[in-house]
Amino acid sequence: xxxxxxxxxxxxxxxxxxxxxxxxxxxxxxxxxxxxxxxxxxxxxxxxxxxxxxxxxxxxxxxxxxxxxxxxxxxxxxxxxxxxxxxxxxxxxxxxxxxxxxxxxxxxxxxxxxxxxxxxxxxxxxxxxxxxxxxxxxxxxxxxxxxxxxxxxxxxxxxxxxxxxxxxxxxxxxxxxxxxxxxxxxxxxxxxxxxxxxxxxxxxxxxxxxxxxxxxxxxxxxxxxxxxxxxxxxxxxxxxxxxxxxxxxxxxxxxxxxxxxxxxxxxxxxxxxxxxxxxxxxxxxxxxxxxxxxxxxxxxxxxxxxxxxxxxxxxxxxxxxxxxxxxxxxxxxxxxxxxxxxxxxxxxxxxxxxxxxxxxxxxxxxxxxxxxxxxxxxxxxxxx
Length: 384
Known about the structure:
- This protein is about 55% helix and about 15% strand.
- The protein has helices spanning about 5-35, 40-50, 65-80, 80-100, 105-115, 230-265, 280-305, 310-335, 350-360, 365-380, and strands at about 120-125, 140-145, 145-160, 165-170, 175-180, 190, 190-195, 210-220, 225, 270, 270-275.
- A hairpin with a 2-residue loop joins strand 10 (about 270) and strand 11 (about 270-275).
- Helix 7 (about 280-305) runs antiparallel to helix 8 and helix 8 (about 310-335) packs antiparallel against helix 10 (about 365-380).
- The longest helix is centred in the middle third of the chain and has 37 residues, at about 230-265.
- The protein is globular, with a radius of gyration of 21 Å.
């Protein structure tokens, strides 16, 4: 991503999404969350806003906006309801894979459908026995004339049931390769089926599924990028995913902080607002400082990625710090609210349930620390 959006246009886009979230998301998010109900009307409005094509180039029907605009939009969506940012994230990673490594024919075929939101994208990398250890992938694609035959099971596929285009990592004779799987929304298509919809602590209203491939046939043109280099292609795209996770975490952390700051001014004890008690002031000061640091790390990673530079270190740092910040601020917001923060009447408990996803998603924070350390050592050896 090397496109740079005019700052005024960026701010206008983010402001538009902020207004949309305040008007259409915040009033209904808690009800949808507790019902674990897919937000069909909200997703339709997101399509109308062009959010599914936000980073897709204009020549393929997208808005062609930059990564800084994208993370600003993601933060606003997560501020209102973190699940909505997941609807966009896996779609954007799938589109980024096609735009970065696809042929011109593949871009022309798939990106316009994704830009309009007519077909949503998903990313299918993990397996029941291959999460962090991606090199243990066992799902296999075997060449059969002009087709590939796919067999295996994929886990933790966000948007998997409703997606029309799935980026798939599968083992071939050359190594792990990347494919684009076209499907119709629903529980089954050809030899592909949604075998399990996973219940979750938070991140509700959006499906996370297992997908089973049994002799599922793909056209030869489904292979994307270089055979045997699919894992490298997808891991490169995951840098965008990690920056997205950081932006999501900033959104949740900001929502938790705003809720705590507002409540601290409204709730009175001992004859004055609790915001005037020194213990609460110290909490608010630490929360605001960590929130600002998380946002700056996220922006720095996005700026470097946008400039076309490698960002495994910066994306890892942003994802690690922002996600830990989201959990800490959600916890502190609950402490400041006291008993009412533990009830389902307020969204504070939702922030507390949503925050752990960012610690685990797109690579656990333990893995992020290893990625950061390895990048630091590599750069030290290079003399940087």
